[in-house]
Amino acid sequence: MLHDARIRTGLETMVRGIDAPPVPLHGIQAKISQQPLRHGSRYLQIGVATAAVVALGFAISPSASLGLVQTLEERYRTALQALGGIAPPAAPVSLKSSLKSQTVTLATAQSRVRFTI
Questions:
Q1: Which pTM value belongs to this model?
Q2: What residues of the chain score a pLDDT lower than 50?
């Protein structure tokens, strides 16, 4: 603990001993206000809008999104094997079936789980 205090004191002394030049804030703010708007923000807006549409599509149709994920999984597995890699084993059918949404009554849902709905 005594060494930690010495190290801390030494570092504080060194940092305080550094002469930093003053920051010209007024000059920086003037340059910022003079710069024209860039068109990169337009590309950002398009990217965000595209991501929102894709996310909305997944939210509206969860069964289709599960199918898309499974398709991507199969493509990944095939590409990995083509490159000489070893793909992890596929998910069991019982897990895949449990991920699909089901329309059931409240009583049926309550009987299937161990917690209170």
A1: 0.26
A2: none
